[in-house]
Amino acid sequence: MINKDDxxxxxxxxxxxELGMDLVEANxxxxxxxxxxxxxxxxxLTSSSCPLMDKIKSEILNNVKNLxxxxxxxxxxxxxxxxxxxxxxNKIRQRRMFQKLPKRNIKRIIAILSGKGGVGxxxxxxxxxxxxxxxxxxxxxxxADITGPSIPKIFGINSIPYVLxxxxxxxxxxxxxxxxxxxxxxxxxxxxxxxxxxLVSNAITQFYMNVDWGELDYxxxxxxxxxxxxxxxxxxxxxxxxxIIVTSPQELAGIIVSKAVNMSMMLGVTIIGVIENMSYVKxxxxxxxxxxxxxxxxxxxxEKMNTKFLGSVPIDPVLSNACDxxxxxxxxxxxxxxxxxxxxxxxx
Length: 348
Ligand code: ADP
Fold this sequence. Notes:
- This protein has helices spanning 4-11, 53-65, 82-97, 121-134, 150-154, 182-186, 197-210, 229-237, 251-266, 298-304, 317-325, 334-347; strands at 15-16, 21-22, 29-35, 38-45, 72-79, 106-113, 139-143, 162-164, 167-169, 178-181, 216-222, 242-247, 271-282, 289-290, 308-315.
- The chain is α/β, with parallel strands linked by helices.
- Helix 4 (121-134) crosses helix 12 (334-347) and helix 7 runs parallel beside helix 8.
- The two termini are 48 Å apart.
């Protein structure tokens, strides 16, 4: 026996070509009546003179009549109220605005996110990018954190991007990582970037679309901390494969990071895992691990988020110097590289 759900399922497959939405999602299905094998469907169109009316009707007829137990199909059309049309168009406008950009020639795009600044998100981004390129993969870093000069500084980039045949050619780091950052354009590290949300969003989109990334295995996007326009743009427009959350054991960072995590979840972005940075410092004399910010909370956070815990990175003054001096690619603390390598094994 045919039931209403079977018919609704079929109507989900009928797309209004003008709206780019199926009839159920567009709230166009007003009624489905079934009686003795006769199916009567009432559809509300956006206007009584809808040019696609016949096309939609015949598509419904053709699809529904193929259902088992259906003898006859009748499609009745009516029109939506002005208020309904307005709501529908708003929904479509929003969807079009946040349509995902194409994947380009990039195999995977991963964003690095933290709840607050200073937890070492850019440093972890740089460590991951460097470890990936050591694995002979093609890597790019898109620095969307325009609030700080971190990424170009960490990689010691002195050259500036230039335009060739309409494409932005990004500077390349010592080991071959393509790097694009607003700070490379502004130049003066001490100048603040006083931009409002829409400009920031535009810059990120342009960096993604107009930079000549070539063929990449991984594009790593360093996001600003928190949950502002930049994160929204990256999560809604870029075809992300997922985000990695960087946190530190400070309770406060843990609470704030929950917001960033919830944002990712609400926007349907996969959380690849959690890396805890600045987890402990090793005593240079006895090797004992001293937990300056208290017990590790990364594992708990990962469990709470139902995602992987990718590891704990200790505090190392040499790492801080390497970041400050732009020599991250020469940094040679074996213990930290092992932690990063293990994290990569869980990611790639
Ligand atoms: P964020 O991107 O989260 O704002 P950064 O990566 O810029 O943070 O790091 C903030 C500061 O902390 C930088 O000076 C960086 O060199 C330092 N830092 C980050 N991680 C470590 C670490 N594990 N050990 C020592 N210093 C670190």
